[in-house]
Design brief:
Layout (H helix, E strand, L loop, with lengths): L2 H8 L2 H14 L4 H16 L1 H11 L13 E4 L6 H6 L18 H11 L6 E8 L2 E2 H11 L7 E7 L2 H14 L5 E6 H13 L5 E5 L15 H23 L3
Helix pairs in contact: 2-3, 4-10, 9-10
């Protein structure tokens, strides 16, 4: 198992619920205290409110300026469901360039929208390829279908992760003299992505999508699988940021 896979396994908050339950079987002293601690821990990781407050702390405020025409809007890859395509590989009625949406689709839709409005002259995205699925090909077709012209979208190079995107887009920007840029990413990803861009000497304005609502209701304090998912992805982002910091990437 690669290091990234090990980290993903270790940051799974449910792993420690299981470990706590196993521990309860074997301990005799202070079992009640341990049970209370485990119950509180499970409650906190399983409510959407925990992810909400963490996200508010972690987010980067938008610096997008409606009065500016950006030379380029950069959208991070991972905007479609590549797994959906791979599971349907060889199905004759599904086109290779069909755009299957996922939670990350907001950012490409935002990029297309802002470029179409004329707020960005060019939409840039890396070419993410997984097995037989080429996301860049599907994104380009989607953008053209939604009204962009061929000269308004460019795929600047092959990417597998955010680090590749930063390394690939910088020479493209320099070669084409694109100076005023806008980075579009989901709100939980933006802090790490922006730090990586700045590490490479790029200082884009930012526009986050998939934002947390300003207010939450009582349902946000009821344990749900969605609450666990939100907690996991926050931990994942923090762990990723720390890992990149230790590697000197951010």
């Amino acid at each position: 198992m690669e290091l990234q896979g090990i980290v993903k396994f270790l940051i799974n908050p449910l792993l420690y619920v299981l470990a706590g339950l196993v521990l309860l079987i074997f301990i005799n002293k202070r079992r009640h205290r341990a049970a209370i601690f485990l119950a509180v821990y499970f409650f906190l990781i399983s409510i959407a409110g925990t992810g909400h407050y963490f996200s508010k702390f972690w987010k980067i405020d938008d610096t997008f300026n409606k009065g500016t025409t950006y030379d380029a809007a950069i959208v991070l890859a991972g905007v479609s469901d590549d797994g959906w395509h791979i599971r349907r590989k060889g199905v004759p009625y599904i086109p290779d360039d069909f755009f299957a949406t996922t939670e990350g689709s907001d950012k490409i839709l935002a990029g297309i929208y802002l470029t179409k409005l004329g707020l960005a002259k060019l939409l840039l995205i890396g070419e993410f390829i997984n097995d037989s699925y080429n996301e860049g090909k599907a994104v380009k077709k989607l953008a053209l279908d939604m009204g962009l012209k061929e000269n308004q979208i460019s795929i600047y190079g092959r990417v597998n992760r955010t680090l590749d995107e930063v390394a690939g887009v910088k020479p493209y920007l320099e070669k084409h003299s694109l100076n005023k840029i806008l980075l579009i990413a989901s709100e939980p990803d933006m802090r790490r992505a922006l730090a990586m861009f700045r590490k490479k000497g790029l200082n884009p304005d930012v526009f986050s999508v998939d934002k947390e609502p300003d207010e939450i209701d009582l349902d946000s304090f009821i344990p749900t699988t969605n609450g666990i998912r939100k907690t996991y992805w926050f931990i994942y982002e923090v762990a990723g940021y720390i890992g990149y910091y230790l590697e000197g990437i951010v």
